[in-house]
Amino acid sequence: MEKYEERIKRNRRRKKRNAILTAFSLLLLFSFGFFVGGKMSHKKNNVVVSAANGNTKEPEKKPSDEAMNKRESAVNSDNKNNVNNKNSSSGEFDPYKPDGKKVAYLTFDDGPSTNNTPKILDILKRYNVKATFFVIGQCAEQNSELVKKEVAEGHVVGNHTYSHNMKHIYSDPNVFVSDLDKGDKTLKSIIGNDYNLKLARFPGGSFGPKLAPFREAAKKAGYHYIDWNDLTGDAERSLVPVSGLLDELKRYTTQDHVVILMHDAPAKTTTVDALPQVIEYLQSKGYSFETLK
Question: What is the distance, to the nearest Å, from the Cα of residue 60 to the centroid of all Cα atoms in its chain?
Fold first, then answer.
């Protein structure tokens, strides 16, 4: 009888122990499932919030400043070694041709923007300096009055492609020319049908053997492109201090004819801040100012 009762007690203890272990295992499993589910839900919510904030990429939308900065920073870092290569296919006009003068061509890419372009135009007017604006077609459509103002104040407007989507435009030379054509058509619709300059600048520059087919295709389509041999480095990152922009300018202003790369995209506020000092520095070195054509 005692053996039987002891066996019953042992069984009860074993069942109780097994029940505790089972409950503990279930608790661990439930906790893990809750944690994973929470993580997935968090990611899902982030996607929804990102879409609500307009951070999703869509075709035919203006590329974000961050995307352009990443690409142009990488390209321009590589191209610092090529700054004196003077890539252009400018037909009879050669901005680098020696003529005994010191000439600076101020160029602004990636605009127009409502916050920076008007300020740049005001500064240029104050110093009586003319510049060349390589505009993105999508931005020109959104800010057509600024394009008209650039022309009205004696500046030159060039084609910086319609989309500035580098993954797209550099996928094939025909795609690139098609995007240039769309940009050209956009400029004609704003400036007038007599706009036939065919002046272009490759996003990121036309440097390097990989873009040789694209350069050839652009020339065959009647475009002439001009890169740069001087820069302020405002594409190096999102917000370069004025002192850094001036240091880069002084570092690369070594030739009599300089085509200077700057940007008037929305994020380039320090480019506006530095522009008076850029102009004054070049004037102090004996440069006059002209536009590309």
Answer: 15
> Which residues of the chain fall below pLDDT 70?
1-92
Q: Which residues contact 211 (CB under 8 A, 6 or more apart)?
A: 170, 202
Same domain, 20 and 155: no
Choice among 109, 230, 234, 264 that is catalytic: 109
Residues 112 and 200 grouped into a single domain = yes
Q: Give the pLDDT score at 84.
A: 54
Q: Let me know if 168 is a catalytic residue.
A: no
CATH number of the domain to which 146 belongs: 3.20.20.370
Summarised one tens digit per residue, pLDDT across range 11-53 is 566 656 666 666 666 666 655 554 444 444 444 333 333 322 3
pTM for the predicted model, two decimal places: 0.74
Same domain, 19 and 72: no
Whether 50 and 74 map to the same domain: the answer is no
Number of domains in the chain: 2
Q: Identify whether residues 107 and 29 lie together within a single domain.
A: no
Task: Let me know if 109 is a catalytic residue.
Answer: yes
For residues 223-261, b (16+ Cβ closer than 10 Å) or e, as one string?
bbbbbbbbbbbbbbebebebebbbebbeebbebebbbbb
Q: Are 214 and 176 in contact (CB under 8 A)?
A: yes
For residue 73, the model assigns a pLDDT of 47
* Given the residues 155, 160, 257, 263, the one annotated as active site: 263
